[in-house]
Design a protein that fits this description.
The chain is mainly beta. It folds into 2 domains: 5-52 and 201-302, Immunoglobulin-like; 87-198, Glucose Permease (Domain IIA), CATH 2.70.70. It contains 1 helix and 20 strands. It has one helix at residues 32-39; strands at 5-8, 46-50, 87-90, 96-98, 103-110, 125-135, 138-150, 157-158, 163-167, 177-184, 192-193, 203-204, 208-209, 211-218, 229-236, 240-248, 265-270, 273-281, 283-291, 295-302. The strands form 4 sheets. Strands 3, 4, 5, 6, 7, 8, 9, 10 and 11 form a 9-stranded antiparallel beta sheet that branches. The protein has a 5-stranded mixed beta sheet with strand order 1-19-18-15-16, with no helix packed on it. The radius of gyration is 20 Å and the shape is globular. Mean pLDDT is 88; it is low at 1-6 and 9-29.
């Protein structure tokens, strides 16, 4: 339904009850990807499910383990930067970088002779770890770029949490930070996916576990809308806004959605509570929903 002001209230959204697919002996277990995909099928604009993630974050608290939101995955920085194939963790020079999961080091060194990104010396010093058959028989690859030091060698078997290097600013980097990528199925720049959606929601040391939001907003032709500006507001009561968040849908050139979600936007580490999401596409659209602790909320909306 499209009117001058499309307002989707909490009555228009629902929570998906997630059931362990192996719990019933009378039903054949679903594979992990299909199980999660089916869990998110609902007739409402908003659903949410528990989201444990597959990878841990590459930093331990009290180092900064939350993601920089100024240049997120699939962003072009309002057209000023190359489309981003990963996320950034700003941390002081020399901060320990840790493996996101068990695996094998498939590259350790510099990219001054071999291209791993857009061009040579793009990541500088980097490490790539293969996580074999991490998701339903499909390999994941985690990439750690702009390092100042490397602590592992190619072929090393790594355990989750092992120190694999130190934060730096090598390659194309505007200051000390870790560039982190997740590649699904193939160790290739053009198989990168949004790292946000491979993590569980962050555990906030003060307020407990956060939540994650993702979604797919598509045009009348069913194609994902590119670089659509979205406003997200955490609300108290009916009208009071506690905090604003500003984001965009993905720039679509050469980036990939998560294999379960097929999303075109995401926002990590949100405090649980009531939210209003709004954007303009010919008219003002508003979606009201509640995010529960430790959940991933998903919005699916096609324009008319």
């Amino acid at each position: 339904m499209q009117v001058d002001r499309d307002r989707l209230t909490p009555e228009d959204v629902s929570i998906v009850e997630v059931i362990d697919p192996t719990a019933s002996p009378t039903q054949a277990p679903l594979d992990e990807i299909n199980f999660l995909r089916q869990s998110l099928l609902c007739e409402s604009t908003f659903c949410q499910i528990q989201w444990a993630g597959w990878l841990s974050r590459p930093f331990n608290y009290p180092d900064r383990n939350w993601i920089d939101l100024t240049y997120p995955y699939a962003s072009t920085g309002n057209g000023t930067l190359a489309i981003h194939h990963g996320v950034e963790f700003p941390n002081p020079y020399g901060t320990a970088v840790r493996a996101a999961a068990d695996g094998r080091v498939v590259f350790s060194g510099t990219d001054d002779e071999k291209i791993f990104g857009s061009f040579k010396n793009f990541y500088g010093k980097l490490v790539i770890i293969e996580h074999p058959e991490k998701v339903d028989g499909t390999d994941l690859f985690s990439l750690y770029g702009h390092l100042s030091e490397i602590s592992v060698d190619e072929g090393d078997m790594i355990r989750e949490g092992d120190v694999i290097g130190r934060v730096g600013a090598s390659g194309v980097a505007g200051g000390s930070h870790l560039h982190f990528e997740v590649r699904y199925g193939v160790n290739n720049y053009h198989h990168s996916t949004n790292p946000v959606l491979w993590f569980s929601p962050l555990e906030n040391q003060q307020s407990g576990q956060t939540s994650t939001l993702a979604g797919l907003i598509s045009g009348p032709d069913g194609k994902p809308l590119s670089e659509l500006s979205i406003t997200l507001e955490k609300t108290i009561g009916e009208n009071e806004v506690e905090k604003h968040y500003y984001l965009q849908t993905y720039a679509q050139d050469g980036v990939n959605a998560h294999p379960v979600l097929e999303e075109n936007f995401s926002m990590p580490d949100l405090p649980p509570g009531n939210y209003r999401l709004s954007f303009i596409f010919g008219t003002l659209y508003e979606i009201y929903f509640t995010l529960d602790q430790g959940m991933l909320g998903f919005i699916n909306l096609q324009m008319k």
